[in-house]
Specification:
- It is a single chain.
- The chain has 3 helices and no strands.
Length: 78
C-alpha cells in the first residue's frame, strides 16, 4: 500500500466549546499574524497557527482577510 496520509485539524480549544467554529477560525488567523509580527517571517514557530487556521477557515475568508490586511482595512486586532 502507498504511503498513508495523516489528516489533522486544530486541537480542541476550551475557549470555543460550541460546534460553530467561526470565532475559533478568526482567532487562529489573528494568532498566526501576531506570531509573524513578533517572531519574524523566517520563524518556523508560527507554522502551527497557520496549520490551525488553514484547517478551520474557508479559503474565501482567508483570501478576503489577506486582501483587507494588504489594504489596511482588516477589522481584527493585529
Amino acid at each position: 500500500m502507498a504511503d498513508e496520509i495523516e489528516l489533522k485539524t486544530a486541537p480542541a480549544d476550551f475557549r470555543f466549546p460550541t460546534t460553530n467554529q467561526t470565532r475559533h477560525c478568526f482567532t487562529r488567523y489573528i494568532e498566526f499574524h501576531r506570531c509573524l509580527a513578533a517572531k519574524g517571517e523566517e520563524s518556523n514557530e508560527c507554522e502551527r497557527f497557520a496549520k490551525y487556521y488553514r484547517s478551520l477557515c474557508p479559503g474565501e475568508w482567508v483570501e478576503k482577510w489577506n486582501e483587507q490586511r494588504e489594504n489596511g482595512t482588516f477589522p481584527g486586532p493585529l
